[in-house]
Every structure is written in C-alpha cells, then in structure tokens.
Amino acid sequence: MRGAGVWIGFTAMCVGMFMAILDVQVVATSLPVIQGALGMAPEQMSWVQTAYLCAEVIAIPLTGFLTRLLSMRWLFVTAVSVFMFASAGCASSGGFGELVAWRILQGFSGGTLIPAVFAAVFLLFPVRRQGIATMVAGVLAVLAPSIGPIVEGWITWTYSWNWLFLINLAPGFLAAILGGVLLPKGQPGLGAARTLDLASLLMMTTALTALEIALKEAPQRGWTSGLAIGLLSLSVASTAGFVGRTRRAVHRVVDIGPFAARNFTIGCILSFVLGIGLYGSVYLIPVYLAFVRYHDALEIGATMLVTGTVQLLTAPLAVVLERRLDARLLTAAGFATFAIGLGLSAAQTTQTDYDGMFWPQVIRGLAIMFCLLPPTWLALGTPHSARVADASGLFNLMRNLGGAIGIALIDTVIYGRSAAHGTAIMDDLRAGNLETARFAGLSTVHCTRP
User: Fold this and answer.
1) Which tens digit of pLDDT belongs to each residue from 417-444?
2) Cα→Cα distances 445→124, 418, 433, 437, 438, Å
3) Quick check: 386 pLDDT over 80?
4) What's 2-196+251-425's CATH class?
5) What are phi and psi of 189, to 5 degrees?
6) Which terminus of the chain faces fewer neighbouring Cβ atoms within 10 Å, N or C?
7) Residue 342: is its pLDDT beyond 90?
8) Which residues contact 394 (CB under 8 A, 6 or more apart)?
C-alpha cells in the first residue's frame, strides 16, 4: 500500500494544483459578471485578477523556504486549506475591497501548490517513475487553462458567480485529507522562521509586484509613461538588491544557487519561452472568439477543448519517446511544432471559426507535452534533493513571468493598433464599403462619396 499511497497522495497534490490554475482562468473570463454583481467600477475590475497574480508570483519562489519550514506534507495541507478558506471568502464578498483582500490570500496559497507538485515528482518517486509523474502533473497544469472557459460558462449559466469560488471547496477538502494522510511524513523546520531574511523577502516582493503591475499598466499607458518606467526601474533595482544580498546570505529566503547549473538555466529559459506561447495563446483565443466572433463562454470552451484533448491523448506518447530519444531532439521538435501551430493561427481572418481554428489547435496540442516534459527533467532532475523545492519554485516562476510578459506584449499590440484600425474602419464606412459595414454590424451605411 506504500507505493499506492504515495501515488494517491501525489494525485491529491495534482488536484490542488489543477484547482488553483483553473481558478485563475475561470475568474479571468468571468470578471464582467462579477463586476456587475458587485457593482464595481470598470477600472476596478482588472485588479481582482491582478491582486491574485501578484500574490501568486511572490509565493511561487518561496515554495522552497516554506517546504523547509513546514515539510512537503504540511505545506500542501496548509496551502489547500487556506485556498479553500479564501475561496469561501471570495464567494461571500460584498464589495471590491473585500474581494481583492480574499484574492490576495487565495493567490498566495495557490501559488505554492504548483511548484510543490513538480518538486514532489523528484522527491517522491524513483527515476523510473518520474516520467509518468511528470506527465500527470504536466497534463493537469496545461489542461486547466484549456477547459477554463467551458467550466466558467457552465457555472455562470447554471448557478451564479459565487460558485466560481465555491466549486473549490469539495475537491480541496478531499485533497487536503488524502494529502495529510498519505504523503510521506516530514520533519517541519520551524526554526527556519527565526533565520528568515526579511530584507531579502521585501526586495523580492517589491521586485515581482512592481513587475506584475508594470506589465498590467504599460500596454494601455505606454511603455515610456512615467508609471511604467518607474515601476520597471523599481523592479530592476529591487531584483539587483535581492540577488546581491542573497548571494552573500547564509540563510537564503530563496536559493538561487541552481542557476549556476547549465542544465537548470537552460530549462528555465525554455520554461520562460513556453510561458509566452502557452499563456499568450490561451489569453488571445478567448478574446478573439468573444469580441470578434461573439461566442459565449460555452462555445469558447468547446473550441479551446481541442488543444486540451489532443494534449491529453499525446501525453503517454511523450513519456515513451522521452525515454528512448534524445531530450534535445524532442524539445526542438516540440517548440518547432508549437511555433508552426501559432504561425497557422496568424493567418486567421474575422471569419475564422471552429473549423478554421481546429488544425492549428491540434498542432499546438501535439507539441505542448514535448515543450514541457524534457525541460522539466532537465531543470529539476539534476539538483540535489535539498534544492529541488527551491529549483521548482524558480522554474515555475520563469514560466509565469514568460506568460505575463507574453500577455503584456499582446495587449501592447492590441492597444497600440486599435486607434489606427478605428480610423481605417471609419474611412471605409464614409467611403461606402459594404464589407466593412457588415463587419461592424451595420445593416445600412449612410456615406458621403467624394
């Protein structure tokens, strides 16, 4: 039962991780519904998501320290329990401030769940089982964003926005119980709290928070605006201070030593690049389907489910090939295939719908596991076990930062080109262009011809 118990405990950790990632997606697509229910001002709406992401990105690199403080078992149980408590608080919120406060707590607890799972792969299992465990964790990590819209659509259509948060309670409770009973016992090192370097923690928190807010604000305000330059400068300065102090510290809040290993650094770079493409596409496709094709959440979810289904089907093949072929070859083929899928999507027009988006999504689904599994093994398969939790936090942080930067670049293009496109549409309407009128949803065009 020992082996089976470890697998069940690990599966419980994966459920917690899946729950946290899914929450980000379903809340992001439901913000207009939440805004209307709580009477929030339009400019407040995005802060519901930003508060979560800022807390999450701070918690991810702290996973190593928290694992040493609480042990893997009790970190997971504590994080899932706090996540459930915060989810219930979000569901009962009556206003903007209250909701944001609960989202910060929810984001911090959810942020530790993701790297804890990837660290567990290399701490709980022998080498021969690590490929399968990585596959399970990887599938759930990238499947959650794909099914997020369809889950959100079903919940909001069937129940209410409160259930976007309440849905976390039952699986969270089950995962906490199973994890608490079946995960290996570890000795908490509560004495680590006495050696916590508060100055390093403050600088890291400042650096990551300033970067997240800058990436949110810069696309609209401009990258050369005073706010964007100020926040980015603060982030760079805080990062430099954090790295300098951490390198000299005896007790490090985050162990950045794994970056000295070539394999780990390459794996982190690949994780960063995957974050740009993966989160960027998951963000852009619903925007296109909602605002150009006027699809509802269920229709958007059905379209995006293609990628998730193909990825699920190809995951076992990825594990088999990873054992038999050169990891460099698999990684290169995975990223090249993923790039082809993204390139095909660039040929979409305003009339492209499910059929036209099908094959690009299939191609991306085929590629994702080959972009995730070999870099994960490269980055986390080599550090000493004492460093795996810190390494996992840094590895997953790079993917999240890649996603944040990718989304910011997409928003920059959208906001930067919207004025020019608006002018072009108005010129076409004045010239009596019926095709443009149909695109704009006008049945009749009153125009003045030169």
Assistant:
1) 887 878 888 888 888 777 777 766 665 5
2) 67, 22, 8, 7, 9
3) no
4) mainly alpha
5) -110, 70
6) C
7) yes
8) 61, 254, 256, 258, 259, 268
